[in-house]
Write a structure and sequence with these properties.
This protein has 258 residues and is an all-beta fold. The chain is 0% helix and 52% strand. It contains no helices and 23 strands.
Length: 258
């Protein structure tokens, strides 16, 4: 990967197992900076990680059948835009992008997965691609049709909505979390006292909350009372609320170990 800010390195493979194309690098204007990354990646995969300085690097692996795709990233002010190639026959990108720590990440993919580490905040939608975010300083919002969502070490509030994918999370340190899934499981561990809303259409819910005071509101449709286990005391005067509901699956709410 090129060391200069904004360098793009391509590794191209044809669908017919053609040799790897020679690596090429594109250098941006001097002093180019990135504060936001916008994804319009379609079925392509994007991995974003933080690095030192204000510049950026883009490494792109290309699989295609037909004309070689052109450069697919651009800088609009301080916004780095990453495009996909769904309009081309049998075309797929895999990005590995290094950007300054604390940048914002937003946008949408179709079936391509999104991996983000070290961002300031995240706001993404996917059709069926998986989403994994970690080491995020601010809020996280993820909307996924059917892809799994994994969230680790987030200091801001989280909002996650999936159609059928499971949601797992740990070291969640914001003030509020709202997680809803149509049929997938929810398994979350929190590091701060916060209001938590967790709902699943048919999947199990497991919450390990930070020690503190909570008002409890739980609901479950089940013929077996053992399917609901709440080991957190209900404090009607608490400002933090735990609201949990599922139409078919066990509920477990416990206090996380310090």
């Amino acid at each position: 990967m090129a060391d200069e800010p904004g360098g793009e390195t391509d590794r191209a493979h044809s669908a017919a197992s053609a040799p790897v194309a020679p690596a090429s690098a594109v250098t941006p204007p001097a002093g180019a900076e990135v504060t936001v990354v916008e994804l319009t990646t379609g079925s392509s995969r994007a991995v974003l990680r933080s690095g030192a300085g204000t510049g950026y690097t883009v490494e792109r692996t290309v699989i295609y059948d037909g004309p070689e795709p052109p450069q697919s990233h651009r800088l609009e002010g301080t916004r780095l835009v990453l495009d996909g190639c769904d309009e081309l026959p049998e075309c797929y990108f895999e990005y590995v992008v290094t950007v300054p720590a604390g940048v914002g990440v937003l946008g949408r993919s179709g079936s391509g997965s999104i991996v983000v580490a070290g961002a300031g905040h995240v706001d993404v939608d996917t059709g069926s691609g998986a989403v994994e975010v970690s080491d995020i300083a601010g809020p996280v919002r993820v909307d996924s049709g059917s892809g799994a969502v994994r969230i680790t070490d987030v200091q801001g509030d989280i909002t996650v909505d999936t159609g059928s994918g499971g949601v797992t999370g740990s070291a969640l340190g914001g003030t509020a979390a709202v997680v809803e899934t149509g049929s997938g499981p929810i398994d979350l561990t929190f590091s701060t006292v916060q209001t938590i809303v967790a709902r699943s259409g048919s999947g199990p819910i497991s919450l390990a909350v930070a020690p503190g005071a909570y008002r409890l509101a739980t609901s479950a449709v089940s013929d077996d009372a053992e399917d609901v286990e709440i080991d957190v005391p209900d404090d009607p005067t608490a400002s933090a609320v735990i609201a949990v509901g599922t139409d078919g699956g066990p509920i477990r709410v416990t206090t996380a170990a310090r």
